Amino acid sequence: MKDKRKIETSFDIDRARRQTPGCREVIHLNNAGASLMPRCVIDSVKDHLELETMMGGYEAADRAKGKIEFTYDAASKLLNCDRDEIAVVENATRAWDMVFYSIPFSRGDRILTSVSEYASNFIAYLQVAKKTGAEIEVVPNDEYGQVSLSALARMLEKPAKLISITHVPTNGGLVNPAAEIGKLAKEARVMYLLDACQSVGQMPIDVQYIGCDLLSATGRKFLRAPRGTGLLYVRRDALEKLEPPFLDLHAATWVKKDRYTIRENARRFENWESYVAGKIGLGTAIDYALGWDLEKIRLRVSALAAELRRRLRKMPHVTVQDLGEVLCGIVSFTVEGIDPGFIQQKLRDKRINVSVSLFNYTLLDMASRKLPSLVRASVHYFNTEREIDRFVFELESIISMESP
Ligand SMILES: *Cc1c(COP(=O)(O)O)cnc(C)c1O
């Protein structure tokens, strides 16, 4: 299927679509939920499961050691860090939790966070605040709805324990100024944790440039890896300060009756048993993304999303809800008088996948905008303008049936 190519990039979209079997089945605009895996990724997972089937799980892992280790090399290349600073875990939440819960908070320690924080992160702040007396302070937004750098700078005039920010919120297209926050964190010598779940895979992420000490990401979203895979980056000097909340015989070694030693590298945040086939699939997916070039991906994705927003803005009853000055591949909107869940269901009947972001996922942000929920359409580079046309057509017909 040839595309009109109004969006000019050097992207070989035909190849991207040929290598993505799901493209023939659905119009997938839920890449912020779980993207479609490319053929090479699912093949690498299946090959390993086949090996486990035929020779046994431990024996297969020994045989595939090179592929497993390759995942750390690929991840370190993706994030521009050392392979010893990478842990591979089961999801982004566990990656984030493992470092957050290893920070020794005490009464009065300040956690500076953002308005658009993800629920799982905020629940963890609340729990730690309750247990330790640490204090949560939310950095206000600037006039664009992004983390206000001047407000953060003012808040950093007093000592803080942690800056914990979400790079791209789950419920909208804005990109927070992660690198500028990194500069402020460095000047104030405050530890900086970045939730990069929605940004990794759709734009270049360089932890040296951003200046974060800790970063979490998931496999299944824009990286197009299998579900149940996640990544953690821990800067080497942060590593020594952080003792994981759980240790097992992979993270540590029981050396004497009354003594253990913890692993030197970031793998101290992993655990023994893991989804080996998924780990291999994650490495394959990262390598595949690097093959496309993350800057090219960013350009393609942001151009497609801008086109989608432009089209939605022209539709009666539709309100694009994205905030932010710098925007990415997530497009959020509401339709007057129609429940987002209903729209999602109707679109799915037409084989178009979108998702719904609920109030409780990002409570502070949704409450401040009085939004009970919204529709999230998230594009990836393999999506086309033709698919956007179809999406707009189907959405129009849902709206015309519901609001006479
Ligand atoms: C999806 C998401 C997470 C959680 O990732 P999991 O892999 O499901 O644990 C965390 N933060 C943000 C901003 C997300 O969008």
Span between N and C termini?
A: 35 Å
Radius of gyration: 22 Å
- State the CATH class of the largest domain: Alpha Beta
Give the biggest sheet. Answer: 7 strands, mixed
Proportion of residues in β-strands: 15-25%
Helix content: 40-55%
Secondary-structure element string: HEHHHEHEHEHEHEHEEHEEHHEEHEEHEH
Note the total helix count. Answer: 15
Q: Average pLDDT across residues?
A: 96
Helices and strands: which structural class? alpha/beta
CATH superfamily of the largest domain: Type I PLP-dependent aspartate aminotransferase-like (Major domain)
CATH topology of the largest domain: Aspartate Aminotransferase, domain 2
Describe the fold and architecture.
The structure is a single chain. The chain is an alpha/beta fold. The chain has two domains: 2-37 and 293-402, Aspartate Aminotransferase, domain 1, CATH 3.90.1150.10; 41-291, 3-Layer(aba) Sandwich (Aspartate Aminotransferase, domain 2). It is 41% helix and 16% strand. The chain contains 15 helices and 15 strands. It has a seven-stranded mixed β-sheet with strand order 2-8-7-6-5-3-4, sandwiched between helices. A hairpin with a 2-residue loop joins strand 9 (252-256) and strand 10. Helix 2 (39-55) packs antiparallel against helix 11 (276-292). The chain starts with 12 loop residues before the first helix and ends with a helix. The relative contact order is 0.17. The model is unreliable at 1-5 (pLDDT under 50). The structure holds pyridoxal-5'-phosphate (PLP). Pyridoxal-5'-phosphate binds next to helix 5.
